[in-house]
Amino acid sequence: MPQDEESTAPGNRSAISVTRLAALVPGVLLCIAVAGISAALEAAERGLFAHPYVEALVLAILLGMAVRNFWRPPERWQAGIAFSAKQLLEVAVMLLGASVSFAAITASGVALLGAIAATVVATLGLSFGLGRLLGLSTRLSILIACGNSICGNSAIAAVAPVIGADGDDIASSISFTAILGVMMVLGLPLLIPLLQLSATQYGILAGLTVYAVPQVLAATVPAGLVSTQIGTLVKLVRVLMLGPVVVGLSLLAPRLQGGVRSKTIRSEPKIGFFRLVPWFILGFLVLAALRSLDVVPAPVIGPLTAITGFLTVVSMAALGLNVDIRVLATVGSRVTAAVTLSLMLLLAISISLIHWFD
C-alpha cells in the first residue's frame, strides 16, 4: 500500500507526465524540421514563379517519405512522429470547425446527404463482392469494404471485433492503406484541372474518396477554403455511417461465425461511442455550430486558420515519415488488388456523382 500511494503521489505523476512529454520531443522536432524545409521550398517557389506549383503540404509528405526510405528513424523518434501524425492532425481538424458554417453544406441539402449515404452503401456492397470474387475470406472482404467505403483504418479497427476478425485479417487489410492514403492526398488535386472541377465539386469528391478525415484536410487545403469546408463536412457524414454499419454487422455476426465463435463475439467488450465518433469530430461539429451561431468572433478565425495550416504541414511530414514503400513487397497480391480496385470503384462512383452538384 505505501508503495502504491508513493507511485500515485502528485509529484510522481508530474514526473511521469514530464517523461512522456520528453519522449515526444525528438520525433516532433524532426517533423517540424521537415515541415520547415517544405515551407522554405514553397516560399522559394513563390519567389521564382509567383505561385507554388507544389505546396508545402505535398512537399512535407514527399520529404518525409524520402527520409523514411533512406534512413529509418530510431525507436526514440517514433513516439513523437506518431503523435504528430495522429494527435496534431486531429487537433487541426477540430480547429477547422471554427472556420466552417453549416450553410456551406445546407445549400445542397438532403440530396447531398442521401447521395453520400447511397455511395457508402453501394461501395460497401460492391467492394465486398469484389473481395469475395478475388477469393478473399468473408471477414477480410468485410474489413476491406468498410475501410475503403467509410474511414480507412478507423473503420477496420471498429468493425474487426464485431465480426471476429483475427490479427492476420486486420494486418492484411490495413497494411496497404497508408500508402494508398498518401497516394490519394498527392494525386487527387490533379483531377481539378483534368475534370474542370469547381471548388464544391472537388470538396465533395475528396470527402467521398479520401480515407481519413485528417487526410481530407490535407487533400483539400491546396484547393482553397471552400473545398476544405465541403470536403470535411462530407467526410464527417461518411464517418457517421460507421455507427449504423457496425450495428448491422453485429446483427449479422452470428451468421458469419460458427456457434463457438459466436459466443466469443458476444463476450467481446462493447465498442464505445468515442470509438465510433472520434473526439475531434465532435469538437469540429461543436466549433462549427458555434461559428454558425456567431459565437466564435471573426478576428479569431485568421489565427486559428494559420495554426491549422501549420499543424497540418507538420502532420503531413509525420505521415510521410510513417510510409515505407517496401511494405508493398509484403502485401498479398489478392489483397492489394482488392483494396486498389475497391478504391478505383469508389473514385468512379464519386466522379459520376459530383457532376450532379454544380
TrEMBL record:
Membrane topology: Multi-pass membrane protein
Family classification: Belongs to the UPF0324 family.
Pfam families, per database record: Cons_hypoth698
Entry superkingdom: Bacteria
Intracellular or extracellular location(s): Cell membrane
Annotated protein name in UniProt: YeiH family putative sulfate export transporter
Keywords: Cell membrane, Membrane, Transmembrane, Transmembrane helix
Chain coiled-coil ranges: none
